[in-house]
Amino acid sequence: MTIAFPAPRAPLVEVDRLSVAFGDAAPVLSEVSFTVAPGECLALVGESGSGKSVTARSLIGLAGQGARTAAGRLAFAGDDLLGYRERDWGALRRRRIGFVLQDALGSLDPLRTVGAEIEEPLRAAGGLTRAERRERAIELLRAVHVPEPELRARQHPRQLSGGLRQRALIAAAIANDPALLIADEPTTALDAAVQAQILALLRDLRSRDGALIVVSHDLAVVAQLADRIAVMRHGRIVEQGSAAAILGDPRHDYTRALVEAAAAIHGARPRVAAAPTAVVPLTPAAPLLAAEGVSKTYPGADRRPCTVVSEVSLALHAGETIGLVGASGSGKTTLTRMLLGLEVPDAGVVRWSGDDWRDLPARERRTRRRDVQVIFQDPLASFDPRYTVRRVLDEPLALRGVARGERHDRAAALLGLVRLDAGLLSRRPIELSGGQRQRVAIARALALEPRALICDEPVSALDVSVQAEVLALLDDLKARLGLACLFISHDLGVVRRVSDRIAVMHEGRLVEDGPADRLFAAPAHPYTRALLAAIPSLDPMRSAHA
Amino acid sequence: MRFVRIILWRLLAGVGVLWAAASITFVAMNVTGGDTAIAILGGPEALPTAEIVAQVRAEYGLDQPLPVQYARYIGRLATGDLGESYRLRVPVAGAIAEQAGATVRLALAAGALALLIAVVVASLTAGRETPARAAVSGAELVLTAMPTFVLGLLLLFLLSFQLRLLPVAGEGGAALVLPVGTLALPLAATMAQVLRQELDAILEQPFILAARTRGLGEAAVRYGHALRHALVPLVTLFGHMFGFLLGGAIITETLFARQGIGRLMADATAATDIPMVVGITLLVAASYVIVNLVVDLLTAAIDPRGATA
Predict the structure, then answer these.
(1) Fewer CB atoms < 10 Å away: N or C end of chain A?
(2) CB-based burial of residue A299 (10 Å sphere; 0-12 exposed, 13-18 middle, 19+ buried)?
(3) What pLDDT does B300 receive?
(4) Which residue in chain B is spatially nearest to A60 when comparing CA positions?
(5) Does B104 lie in the same domain as B241?
(6) Total domains, chain B
(7) What ipTM is given for this predicted complex?
(8) Buried b vs exposed e over A186-224: b needs ≥16 C-beta within 10 Å?
(9) Which residue stretches of B146-226 are H helix?
(10) Domain range holding B46?
């Protein structure tokens, strides 16, 4: 800070031709080179498996068990890291580099108080008494804008929301004033509104003079933070440069695809001008699925009843797509479970094609269930891991009474419908990519020839470029098959792309419900306005002012 | 408050368990026990006359209808009267109290040793692919599969007869080593297997990686974070394995000619000494109730999330 002349500052992080391999397998990183100057923010962007996390973890010696690291140079603040032993790495992690992990929900020890977790690096670094540590922990929580820090420090992680946990993790990472903060997917598990707050916090921390490395699959997220962006693929950096250059003038094909995919999802007017709007029936037929004033209350912590859904009315008509938006905990999932008849509302009625679900005999309910199929966020969890794709598809076909001999052809046809090769029939779910799995899940849903699909965060576990493909597929299938669709997501950008109508839930209530275009043009409820403002944009200038 | 509720609930359930144990024993001895009066008189070899048998029947109320006998039996037990041993002619409570100390010492020492071995072995080998881990896993498998008396004889043969390191029998401290080892090793092996499996899974959790990113050393990660998570299933397992400890105590005490409840139980069963069998059964049931109460309290203390009574 006392440098009088603008001398060329030595880089804080120097990485030259870094390669990492596990065991005898092919290297996961090859010849990765970059530098980070003091006070600078570098973003590492790429899909999962591109090597960005391994790169970040190599800087603190935690690339993983059995990792073999080789590099021309790997240095932090002039110190050669290649010669580091375990105890040197410990000192580096304790005092000089803070690391924020991706999983805000799982990265705090569930059996410890939040305060204890933040005090841990302080205790490891030494030099403070117990009382001083406690005070410092509260100070840190305040610095990351956690309200009521004294109370929060005494609580366990499960008592904190995702956003607060992420803040607490950041507080632990900056406890010993590190010169470099590394954040690995810091907002991936968070809702749009919370994501914006965390990004603002990271920006704020940066401006205080620390260097920052952000790892993300989402270009829109890093656009708001990074001075420079390095795009990674298959363990290599395919392009790096200033944020403006990468976003405004991408050179590499892959970078261009990423920018386009991000723009398609988060951009200005992305919706494919498709036919579905016209499919909305003009005659007031009974809706396929309807909730009329439904409420659901659960016994909460300390026996206080917790109302999860409160007097919600929502109707899904044939051929229509409704986007259901809300933060986690807003009651989206509970409402969906009630619509599916998996949960009985405490008040109100759920109707299937006009009939009160509770009045239907069990046999009738089972038949009608096939009319509404669900696609989940994590398709892998919804498959029996021992089943092949053929068996996954065989099950619903058998249920519908398709003769055994015909099923193979039908299964292949279903895969064709979701644009997958019939050769995948003999694979198991674990052998498929995330995008392929979600397509198989869609094929399985379609096998029952449903009239409506309920898509619960169908693309939020997927990488951006794959997201765009799956969304386009869903859009196309809806139009071709005349399916109604209830599309649930915390991501307004994604919802906007597919929905005719958008319903916004907030704290168990439906605060807004209307045509997608009107909702975006003139949001009525303050919460909707806040959600719209929180959509990350690719434009660094606009975000800087936001 | 939560602890008070757990204690009250468990104690209430415990009374039910004791009542059930007493009732089952009553039914069992009336179905299979042979003639109680003859057992009181020292068995058929004593050749009691019919007159004396009838007299004993009347004296002990054995001529009453079963429901009346049952009511009296439960009533006596409820007031804490365990009766008199047919075989030893002394109050059952006194005889048990006299022998309990030896068994409690044996069981506590074995339990503590097993816990210690399990924690040390598992925490050192979990999450690592080392030759030591493979060797320890193999030893655990052998110990888990080996019957207690085989292990006891093996240890006796090796350490006492061959190497002459330890006495074969007796009541001193050195004589405690073999019985405790015999009882502890299989228990330690089972617990180490479970604990290592738990630790393996926990060491993969994101919060462990998070602790490492903060620069914590391996020991702080393992003992400060991971172990506490693995203790809940371990403590629960220990509660279940308590029965193994008691069963093992009977074999061990017989094998090493030690005094104790196990020995008392074996002798009482052989002699159809019903009051003694009932007394020991109730003692075992009661200690089960208490051990599982302690397990529940420990679980609630270690992991404040779940655990409500």
Answers:
(1) N
(2) exposed
(3) 83
(4) B213
(5) yes
(6) 2
(7) 0.71
(8) bbbbbbbbbbbbbbebbeebbeeebbbbbbbbbbbbbbb
(9) 148-155, 173-202, 206-213, 218-219
(10) 14-78
What is the mean pLDDT of each successive set of 10 residues along chain A, which is 546 residues long? 53 92 85 91 87 92 87 91 90 92 81 92 88 93 88 88 86 90 83 78 78 88 88 92 89 86 58 42 70 84 72 90 85 88 88 86 85 84 86 90 88 90 86 85 90 87 77 86 88 82 90 88 86 70 42
Report yes or no on B280 lying in a domain.
yes
The answer to whether residues B115 and B192 belong to one domain is yes
Q: Do A121 and B215 touch (CB under 8 A)?
A: yes
> Are B214 and A110 within 8 A, CB to CB?
no
Residue A236 has a pLDDT of 92
In tens, the pLDDT along B212-246 reads 998 888 888 999 899 988 988 898 888 888 877 87
Cβ within 8 Å, pair A124-B220: yes
pLDDT at residue B309, as a whole number: 32
The answer to whether the Cβ–Cβ distance between A92 and B215 falls below 8 Å is yes
Tell me the residues of A at the B interface, defined by beta carbons under 8 Å apart. 60, 62, 89-95, 99, 101-103, 106-112, 120-121, 124-125, 156, 158, 169, 172-173, 175
Length of chain A: 546
Q: Looking at the complex, does the CB of residue B264 fall below 8 Å from at least one CB of chain A?
A: no
In a domain, B307, yes or no: no
Same domain, B172 and B243: yes
What one-letter code names the amino acid at B70? Answer: Y
The domains located in chain A, with CATH, are 13-266 (3.40.50.300), 276-371+451-545 (3.40.50.300), 383-449 (no CATH)
Q: Are residues B249 and B126 in the same domain?
A: yes
Q: What angle do CA B151, B157, B163 make, to 5 degrees?
A: 125
Pure H helices in A448-525: 464-481, 492-498, 516-521
